[in-house]
Amino acid sequence: MSQLKVFRPFGPVSYELKGTEAAIRIFGELWRQASHFAVVNPFLPVLDGPEIGTKKLKRVQRACRNFPCLQLVEQAYWATAWPGTVDHHPPALLLHGRVETNFYTMMFGQSKGIFWEEQKGWEDLMLFSESTLMFYVCTHERVGEIIGPITLFSTLTLSPTAPLLQDEWVIRGDLIPPVVLKRLLEP
User: What are phi and psi of 167, to 5 degrees?
Assistant: First the structure.
């Protein structure tokens, strides 16, 4: 059964990413202010009930073990929509978790830029402050946006590029039951 998780904007203005931004400085400030994150792996097979215990399960477990902050994951979806992507088929594995300051280096230490490349199959990073969206990137498409109040952009030493035109973003997909998620996240 498909579920919808709705996020409002973190502020009234946005900055469209160009790819030349100082990623480490920006990620540091956004991670400090965020409460949750989400990432996507679009390269995995969708698992449903009878496939648990097959080669597909092992492949998904291997991919999850490659995610640097696995212990922070609280929910997962077989998602068809997330910020920046509106109709993804087949569904992609989306992990949603809490932010913890001491995991910053683990999350961003290998990133090659603001589009969060080189993450072993994981891409499309999103950062949230409670029920608001602060940041998203679509790694392959090389698009993304920082969303927030003017004070955030002052801190980041960026000038907002546009007033915000969108008033909500969604994660749409089938929530993975906790018992299945536990198997996916086994070390």
Answer: -110, 0
- Could you tell me the two tokens for 45? 């097979």
Is the pLDDT confidence value at 72 over 90? yes
- Helix or strand run (H / E) with residue 34: none
Average pLDDT, rounded, for the chain: 92
Task: Report the DSSP pairing between strands 2-9 and 132-138.
Answer: parallel
Residue 75 has pLDDT above 90, yes or no: yes
Model confidence at 168, pLDDT cuts 50, 70, 90, reads very high
Token pair 């648990």 in the structure block, residue: 52
Q: Are 1 and 158 in contact (CB under 8 A)?
A: no
Residue 55 has phi, psi (to 5 degrees) of -60, -35
Looking at the DSSP bridge assignments, the partners of residue 3 are 173
